[in-house]
Sequence to fold (824 residues):
Amino acid sequence: MNNTVATPIHIIINSYSIGDPDGVPCRLCVEYNAFEGPGHISSHLFPSPGTLINFNTLNAFREIDKKNVLEQSAKQIWDDIKSGKAITEPFLLSRFMLLTFCDLKKYHYHYWFAFPALVTPEPVTVHKPAQRITDVFTSNQVKSLQKEYDSLVKTVPHLGFFLVVQDGNSIKLQTLDKANKVSKKAKVFYGFCDPCTLSEHPGWPLRNYLALIASKWPSQEPISIICYRDRSREGQRSCDHSIVLEVNLPSMTDMKDCPKCVGWERNQKNKLGARTVDLSSSMDPNRLAESSVDLNLKLMRWRLIQELDLEKVQQTKCLLLGAERRETKAATAAEKLKKIFPGVTSSGHQFSIPMPGHAVGKSEAALKQVQEDVGKLEALIESHDVIYLLMDTRESRWLPTLIAASKRKLVVNAALGFDTYLVLRHGLKTDESEGSTASPVNLACIPGHRLGCYFCNDVVAPGNSTRDRTLDQQCTVSRPGLSMVAAALAVELMVSLLQHPNGGHAAADTSAKDDHLNASLISPLGLVPHQIRGFLARFHTILPASLAFNKCTACSESVMSGYREQGFNFLLKAFNQPSFLEDHSGLTTLHQEIDYSEIIAFSDDESVKSTE
Amino acid sequence: MSNSKAILDKLEFKLVAKEFAVFSEKRHICWQLVQSEVPGLPFLAFKQRLHSREEKSTNQEHSREEEDEEDDDAERELEDDQATLVTERCDTISMEYHVVYSESYQVPVLYFNAFHSDGKLLSLNEIWDRVPSLHRQRIEHDKWTVITQQEHPIFGRPFFQLHPCHTEDLMKQVLPNSSKSKSNYIVTWLSSVGPLVGLHLPLVFSELCGDG
Fold:
């Protein structure tokens, strides 16, 4: 036998009840307090001592010599019978064995119970079949039996085996050790507390009891047995359904060797094999987290919004772009997400996003690296449904905006000032719409494909904004709560958008003229604005909407077709040549068309920089 | 105890719970009052077994390696044992009920669990399947708010719960108006909501209520 067998052996105490309603099969209850010894069992239950053998491998569990295991237990019972211990402590007749193997990764538990029963050398035959106790005794006698039992149990708690002595009309109960002191003219019934509820059959504890009787008190005459059953229904207690039988019992007094033994429990398929139970749904923390999130979503749907498309929420793949400066932030973020919800699929990717106006190095290695980074970004955007742009700088948002626009992906931008924030969903182009920025549109309700992106309101291209900045300008300092508010709104905006029947093409709700208070809600979750601009100093939010710009440096037709036709080369020009985008998109021309003489004055504290 | 308030404070709960438990014991009904250190409040506990309509094993998904093998040796041993009666396999469900006081709602809350005989917890859907159909129609639209799964406030394990948000309203309608009539809050409450989840208080409990 190899040394992975098992260990340790535990003594545990289980319990059975004799009060079940008809038809309920008898069972031995193993509870979590089984290791604590017999003291914890409730007064109306009966103890059954047992041995638990736990195995370290499934193979060891399967290959253990079952016959041997059963024989060892049988020997314990037989020894207790021979020595007389079973007379003073008859609960030792109700032993059991339990083999277990626990797969703690999957929370699968394999187990097999055995209830060893000694087999008499010749079969026990029925002399008189089972009768209801009320057919054998008068109702007064039955009442008396019950009372006697109750008072005996006060001195000998959990007494499961006893003698019922009928002397004339009186019924008295005795413990087994008084068997030899019973008057010769009295009739003795061997009583035991029976968990079985069948009207024609006694329960399993009788088998070892018979072995005890056959060893200590053999008789040529048939012996009488009372299977005592005691139940309460509707507050009424009765033992009328107890049964009485008479059997012919072959003697076992001369037996020295341990008798044969049976007792392995059959499994759910009624075969002699182990049972398995999968408890992962109530023990595996991942499963528990999943089901609690699932329940939460269900609650939202049932209680509040019947039309909520839960699957859509669960299956949307989100790409979060941000965290430029610190090395391990992406991986850490992915880990943190898993901590919040173990069922999430999340991974962190570390790479740089190339930016317009930030020249790529001349070396081949540098070029190759940038090409790889662009490729990686393109692949990531392709494989996700929603892109969140959460970067520190304006120009770093340019490339993902262009790629996502050409791949028709949903984009949500979040940008922070000191005490202001912007959450913006980019317009979602359609294949027809790329050229349609000229046709008229209702500004109160701009359709999704005409909405602008982050760069549409700018008249200068994103350039290198970090050059010539002082230290405090390089790092955006924000009020502490701002990022959480903006982040939460970004997510909620996205979810509302996804629930809208037109998705990213949904027209924009605005707060112009308080429209947001009166507009009818199409998405089950409410409004789907284009932008949410918040002003923390006044705790005020507005919902503006803006049009796509036909000279936008990120999403205009000319830029997008340049990218589509020239791919990486187009991008490289944008990275390396600061004026390329302005020229290509037509902004340069626009500037040249302005007649500066028509402008009366610039205000002193205005600047041409756009918000970041 | 005369109590026609729809809610209970801590002390009132303790008193009605005690009365309930003592009465139970006298009538051999196995409700027990259990002291608990966590909230400093006792709770009532009850267990019962019910038939399951399902006779199949609860474990449908098994990988091939895990298929339980039959033990031929054991089978042979038992072949000629005529003393073993082999009956139909049928599952029974073990139900465990706890009546725990909720300080925020100021009412008792029914927590319960249901296990298959192999120890596996029933799923929320299985619990719903067991709600009697006459009750089901009434609360169908509110389904997930009525029976929900939560962490037990004392044990921390997952337990099903009858949500307490409607209890006060229910009790307003059901408790006797007159302060002269005797009542036990728990009896009145449990006899109304218990049947949803297989808990039927024996009629004898009505002795704790009625016109005094």
